[in-house]
Amino acid sequence: MDLATVAGALPPYHPRRLPRSLQSILTGPTQLNLCRIGGVPVENNYWQVNLTGMHGEPMPESTRDFTAFARTLRTQTIYDAIEGAIPFGPIHRFGFPCSVRRRFEALDSFPDCLLPLGDVICRFNPAFGQGMSVAAQEAGALRRLIEARTVDADPLKGLAQSFFAAIQGFLAAPWAAAENDFIYEKTRGQRPRDFYQRSKFSFALQRVAAEDATVHQIMSEVTHLVKPSSTLRDPQIASRVTALMAASA
Ligand SMILES: Cc1cc2nc3c(=O)[nH]c(=O)nc-3n(C[C@H](O)[C@H](O)[C@H](O)COP(=O)(O)OP(=O)(O)OC[C@H]3O[C@@H](n4cnc5c(N)ncnc54)[C@H](O)[C@@H]3O)c2cc1C
Q1: Which helix or strand (DSSP H or E) is residue 69 part of?
Q2: Architecture of domain 2-95 in this structure
Q3: In the chain, what are the domain boundaries?
Q4: What is the Cα–Cα distance from 125 to 7, expressed in whole angstroms?
């Protein structure tokens, strides 16, 4: 995966441009264009726009090409937002080889005074912006475990195994999001057995969310780890999604 990031000041308000209250914008990939482009407000009223390309997709080298590229996307929202923007630096590029999940929890034993945390356990596609949140959740779990062990004679004994068990719930949803990269034929690795069914659910959910702002908000909150993924199994949402899946079968 290739990431190209540029930050700058958006041009003054224009009717076609974004409402100032907007939190973020995202244009997802299509079958013809694997790139994903998203913008978020950052400090000093600047916006940061990130373009991610998969499997060697050509990436723009200059801010002019970047803007021109935005024009080729399925929708013009981001182009309308950034056309005429003033970048305050060059495009920063980052190459990300692959998402990785290390199954330390499956080992029979683990050294007592060693503890992996963060990306070394699970490294996600940064396009989804989840790695720091997961690392923070893991740090919280570690603190709770250490606090509970302060009275133990040997508090570090077996800490790693307890830690690995405690963090699996934090990894499930972001790892499932990373597994969406199996949608690309060139993605290597072990495709989950239920991937086809999951993808169908995910496509139908996105179609429901495109027409219902409440569902869209819940979907975004799950993606950004604010709500658990079980929220999407709420009967009111799940029934609409499965009805759409059945209709398009
Ligand atoms: C381009 C990009 C954009 C991202 N955007 C987001 C985002 O928007 N939101 C989000 O939540 N996450 C994001 N992430 C993911 C996030 O940055 C990581 O998940 C998070 O930083 C992991 O924290 P960590 O402490 O495990 O690793 P790191 O933050 O990588 O820290 C590891 C540290 O160890 C140091 N180190 C490495 N080897 C050695 C050594 N041998 N000796 C001493 N020190 C060493 C490194 O220099 C580094 O400082 C992004 C990642 C990338 C690459």
Answers
A1: helix 63-71
A2: 2-Layer Sandwich (3.30)
A3: 2-95, 105-182, 195-247
A4: 20
User: Which pTM does this prediction carry?
Assistant: 0.87
Model pLDDT for residues 166-201, shown as the tens digit of each residue: 999 999 999 998 998 998 889 999 999 999 999 999
Query: What gap in Å lies between CA 220 and CA 28, rounded to an integer?
Result: 13
Q: Is the CB of 122 under 6 A from ligand 1?
A: no
Beta bridge partners of residue 52, listed in sequence order: 3, 36
State the pLDDT confidence band at 242, using cuts at 50, 70 and 90. Answer: very high
Is-contact 59 53, C-beta < 8 A?
Answer: yes
Structure tokens at 146: 């250490």
| CB 119 less than 6 A from any atom of ligand 1 | yes
Instruction: Give the residue, out of 96, 119, 130, 138, with the most ligand 1 atoms within 8 A of its beta carbon, to mutate for a pocket test.
Output: 119
Residue 94 Cβ inside 6 Å of ligand 1? The answer reads yes
Protein residue with least CA distance to atom 50, ligand 1: 126
